[in-house]
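INTERNAL TRANSFER SHEET
From: sequence group
To: structure group
Subject: Probable replication restart protein PriA

Please process the attached sequence and return the structure record in the designated field. Keep the field labels unchanged so the import script can parse them.
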Amino acid sequence: MDVPLAHLDRPFDYLVPAELAATAVPGTRVKVRFAGQLVDGWLLERTERSGHAGRLAYLEKLVSPEPVLAPEIARLARAVADRYAGSLADVLRLAVPPRHARVEKETPPEEPTPADVPPADVPADEARTPRIPRSTTGPAVPDPPTGADGWGAYPAGPGFLRALADGRAPRAVWSALPGEDWPARVAEAAAATVRGGRGVVAVVADARDLDRLDAALTGALGPDRHVRLSAALGPARRYRAFLAARRGRVPVVIGTRAAMFAPVERLGLVAIWDDGDDLHAEPRSPYPHAREVLLTRAQLGGAAALVGGHARTAEAQLLVETGWAREVVPDRATVRARTPAVAPTGDDPQLARDPGAATARLPSLAWTTARDALRADAPVLVQVPRRGYLPSVSCADCRAPARCPHCAGPLALPSARGTPVCRWCGRVSAAYACPECGGRRLRAAVVGARRTAEELGRAFPGVPVRTSGREEVLTRVPGGAGLVVATPGAEPVADGGFGAVLLLDSWALLTRADLRAGEEALRRWLAAAALARPATAGGRVVVVADGGLAPVQALLRWDPAWFAARELAERRELGFPPAVRMASVTGTAPAVAELLAEARLPEQAEVLGPVPADDDRERMLIRVPRSRAAALAEALHVAAGVRAARKAADPVRVQVDPLELF
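Return from structure group:
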């Protein structure tokens, strides 16, 4: 039943009326009477007998005869709910989009053709899935190129494609080369899988990446061979695409994290690009991560898996070290031929030439690199980690951070002549006075993308400067000179590659109080640096950071696997995910204490905290070995069910493997 109460997270038995016997099939939406109320539910299974000894009620209504919940998705949803200490109803809300009756009526299910109907002697469990999906019929899928510019640039690449085409289930962690046309590589892997008679689910982080993958798949498979699933499509278009996949009309589904549960006939490959992007983490209960959902699908369904990106997460490195997946990486000669020249500004030789490089926001090395690229009529990319103008300001006299007098939130300046505005409550503080010294002048504490563009416009007069961020995202930069200031994730693609890439304000990434600060910094740097031209074509990358730092070293050598292995080893030593399984319990102090008192935690569990959370809440952390992960999730789910049955007033949020621990 679709109810948000943890103690009701189990199937209930109902009788099927005779008039619904033919249409109430597993996977359909129904309405049932429960506790005197009419509630929504999912019909999971039809059996002849019930284990319930009491009297059974009848189904009240069949909402739709469309079996939108596929059996394999129901099994997956149960596994995901168990892994994340959640309920099946919460996962099904994420897996199946809301019904759109008009779309169901305008696209009725196709009648099975004789080729789809199995012979009478085929076992019933095999008969439920056609041996050759209808969606694979149509124009032949061409063989993907495997030359030096495609998967052939990776020694294990051609073998990976052959295994997909042969119907096998290889599992790969792919480290993409700089300048790689990754949408084309994913499309080639999808085409090989379709050629083997199986389906594909591919997930990317945002709409811009989805557009690129959409175009690549159209070229590799032809039109109308795939659909895209995204929450941004709107209810009707999203449900229409979902039905096309559920009815087997297309073999490939791509999308953002909304596509991780997409129903695909005979799933043969799950793929995710840039799994370290925090957009892959679902913000709704039970907070699953798209990577973990897809890997669970591969494990349950015997499908192939592809985890790709320019960087590599510690979770992906764990897959390699445990033998669950194999590396697909280029050899060092290919890496050296394809990478731009990378230089830091904080090493000793550079500081000897430019003593001010340690404190300058745009050291001389970065300035001269941009100037040389512009003179060569090549575009320049400048990555800054903050959007806006001045997202953080401080007192010009005593340097105390400027805070809102109403809510103590950070003040920001929206423009050069703007008045300070609170980033939390939105109040304007036109008459701001520092509570420490009484000063009224403000100075920049953190510089945003628009202020950076303004400064670069003065440094390079006559050169066009454009910004790319949340407000306006550039997708492609035409050839020719120009400066592009972008926040991480909004960097456009330049025709022929950028002549120079400047990575500014590295301290803002490296000094974050986050377990993944170094990993996230390297991921963002590699994503930007991958857009530069190779060193042989004049491409240069300047990172304003000390060259001795581990993330900078990994960038200089273009070796994300080394850094991921180093991160994983440190986390094993310190006892942090993914080396262990960790859960956070957040709420008011009495509510958290009540839940932990009810939870029968495994013997190896360590309870850490409390850690301050937002508002008046606190957070407790629970750490167990990975072998006891299922026991931890079950204990927390049962404890949450006990509190729900008692109708506890204060809610408690339970998250397994949260992205943010502190």
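Handover comment: Residues 27 and 67 are 4 Å apart (CA to CA). The chain is about 30% helix and 20% strand.
Transfer complete.
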